[in-house]
Design brief:
- The complex is a heterodimer of chains A (about 190) and B (about 190).
- In chain A, about 80% of the residues lie in helices and about 0% in strands.
- Chain A is mainly α.
- Chain A folds into two domains: about 1-100, no CATH class; about 105-185, no CATH class.
- The radius of gyration of chain A is 21 Å and the shape is globular.
- In chain A, about 45% of the residues are buried.
- Chain B is built from eight helices and no strands.
- Chain B has helices at about 1-20, 25-40, 45-55, 60-100, 110-135, 140-160, 165-185, 190-194.
- In chain B, α1 packs across α4 (about 60-100), α3 (about 45-55) crosses α4 (about 60-100) and α6 runs antiparallel to α7.
- Classes of the chains: A mainly alpha (about 190), B mainly alpha (about 190).
- At the A-B interface, α1, α2, α3, α4 and α5 of A face α1, α2, α3, α4 and α5 of B.
Chain lengths: ~190, ~190
C-alpha cells in the first residue's frame, strides 16, 4: 500500500515538475509532507544529500524518500514513477515533432525560446560562481578559498582551449574541482 | 549485432553521464553535449539546443528527457529504455546505499570537502556551457535582445530571490518571438530571418 502511495505521489511530481529540480522541490515537499512520510527537517537533509550526490536531483530524492519509507520496493516504485512521465512525454513529442517542428509558427516560438534559455543558463552559471566567491546576503563577504578554486578552474578551462585546442571535458573539470576541494578545505 | 552494440553503448555512455553530473539539469547539458554531440556524434549541436528547449518546457528531470530523446533517435524504443536506465542506475545505486548504510553522509570530512570543490566546478561548468551556446548562436537582433534581457532578468531574480519562475520568462520570450513573426506578416522570408 505504501508503495502504491509512493508511486502515485512521485508520479504527480514527475508530471508537474517543470524547469528542473529546483522547481520540483516545493512540489516534492508538498507531496512528502502531505502524506506525512517525513518531517521537514529530514526532508531538508535528504535534499542536501541529493544535491551532493551524482545524478538528477529529482531521481536521487525519489530513491531516497522511497527507500526510507519502504526499502528496495519503495525506492523502485518512487524512482520509476518520477521517471515515467518524462519518458512518455518525450516519446510522444518525438512522434509529433517531426511534422510540427517544420511549421513556421512553431519555429517562431522556438527561435524565441532558444536565446531565452541561453540567457537563463548564463545568469544561473554566473550567479552561482559569483555567489560562491562573494556572499551577497550577509553584506559582501569575500571567500578566499572559493576565489582561489574559481581562478584555478577558470585557468584550466582557458588553458585547455588555448593550448590543447579543445574543451576541457566536464568530467575532468568535476574531478579536478573535487581534488581542489579536498586539498584547499583541509 | 550492430544494434545490440548500440544499446550497450547507450547504456554505458548515459551511466557515465549519470555518474559525473552534480547539481542538476544545466550542468548535465554540458556533459551530455560533450559525450553525445562532440565525442559520439549521436546528435548535432543544433539538435542539442532543440532538446534543451523541449526538456525545459516539458515536466520531469532534464537529464531523463535528454536520455530518452537521444536513445530513441539512435535505437528506437529499446534505445530510449537503455539510455534512461543508464542515467538512472548510478543515482539509484548510490542513494539506495547511502539511505541504507550511511546516516550522516554529509558529515564525512572527505565528502564534505570534495563537494565544496565540486559546487564551484558546477557553477563554472554551467557558465562554460552558456558561453559555448552563445558562440554558436545566430547573431541576429531579436535573439540577442531576448538573450540579453532574459539574462538580466534571471540574474536579478536570483540576486533578489524574486518569486518568478524561469517558465514565465520562457513563455514571455516565446510569445514575443511569435508576435514579431506575426507582425512581420508571417511570411517565410521574415520567419527565416528571426
Amino acid at each position: 500500500m505504501i508503495c502504491l502511495h509512493l508511486f502515485l505521489g512521485f508520479l504527480k511530481v514527475g508530471c508537474f515538475a517543470f524547469g528542473g529540480a529546483y522547481g520540483a522541490i516545493p512540489l516534492i515537499r508538498d507531496v512528502v509532507l502531505s502524506y506525512g512520510w517525513l518531517t521537514d527537517e529530514s526532508l531538508t537533509y535528504m535534499i542536501a544529500v541529493s544535491e551532493s550526490t551524482p545524478g538528477p536531483i529529482m531521481v536521487n530524492l525519489a530513491t531516497y524518500v522511497g527507500s526510507s519509507q519502504a526499502g528496495l520496493p519503495g525506492a523502485l516504485a518512487a524512482t520509476f514513477a518520477v521517471v515515467l512521465p518524462s519518458f512518455l512525454v518525450i516519446h510522444f513529442i518525438t512522434l509529433a515533432l517531426k511534422t510540427l517542428i517544420k511549421k513556421p509558427y512553431v519555429q517562431a516560438v522556438l527561435q524565441g525560446l532558444k536565446p531565452c534559455i541561453i540567457g537563463i543558463i548564463l545568469a544561473t552559471g554566473l550567479y552561482m560562481t559569483l555567489n560562491h566567491c562573494i556572499s551577497f546576503t550577509e553584506g559582501y563577504i569575500f571567500h578566499v578559498p572559493e576565489m582561489v578554486i574559481t581562478a584555478l578552474l577558470s585557468g584550466a578551462i582557458w588553458g585547455s582551449r588555448r593550448f590543447q585546442k579543445k574543451r576541457l571535458s566536464p568530467i575532468a573539470l568535476i574531478l579536478i574541482s573535487a581534488c581542489l576541494g579536498v586539498i584547499l578545505y583541509a | 549485432m550492430m544494434k545490440k552494440h548500440m544499446i550497450w553503448d547507450l547504456f554505458f555512455t548515459f551511466m557515465k553521464i549519470g555518474l559525473f553530473t552534480f547539481g542538476g539539469g544545466y550542468a548535465m547539458i554540458s556533459i551530455i553535449e560533450d559525450c553525445c554531440a562532440e565525442k559520439k556524434s549521436w546528435i548535432t549541436h543544433e539538435e542539442m539546443m532543440d532538446i534543451t528547449v523541449i526538456a525545459e518546457s516539458t515536466p520531469g528531470p532534464i537529464a531523463i528527457n535528454c536520455a530518452t530523446y537521444i536513445g530513441c533517435k539512435q535505437a528506437g524504443f529499446t534505445g530510449s529504455l537503455a539510455a534512461t536506465a543508464g542515467i538512472v542506475a548510478p543515482s539509484f545505486l548510490i542513494i539506495f546505499w547511502i539511505s541504507r548504510f550511511l546516516d550522516n553522509f554529509l558529515e564525512i570530512p572527505l565528502i564534505y570537502r570534495a563537494f565544496r570543490g565540486i559546487k564551484i566546478g558546477v557553477g563554472l561548468l554551467i557558465l562554460d556551457a552558456a558561453l559555448t551556446m552563445i558562440k554558436k548562436m545566430r547573431k541576429k537582433e531579436l535573439p540577442i535582445v531576448i538573450m540579453v534581457s532574459s539574462f538580466v532578468l534571471m540574474f536579478l531574480i536570483n540576486l533578489f530571490s524574486w518569486n518568478f519562475s524561469s517558465i514565465s520568462l520562457m513563455t514571455a520570450a516565446g510569445l514575443v518571438s511569435l508576435a514579431v513573426f506575426l507582425l512581420g506578416g508571417g511570411s517565410k522570408k521574415k520567419g527565416g530571418a528571426l
